[in-house]
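Sequence in, structure out. Go.
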Amino acid sequence: MEKFIRDQHGYCRVYETDFNLFMIEALKIIETMINLGFYSNEKEIINVMDPLITLLDGSLDFFDEDEEQEHKKRV
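Output:
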């Protein structure tokens, strides 16, 4: 799950509703893993939290494919 979240690179495509439902479930699994102590030191927690923060801060949310393509042209 951790690798899956990192591989998203912070992008959230609002127009992909089925994928977003899957992403919510993935986030729940990661939350449960953190609560159950699967990550036992600060470095492990930071490695999980950094991509989550990027994903959840909304800075790379796209509401349609055109908006995403415009962003890719600028970057």
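Check: The beta strands are 12-13, 61-62. The CA atoms of residues 6 and 51 lie 5 Å apart.
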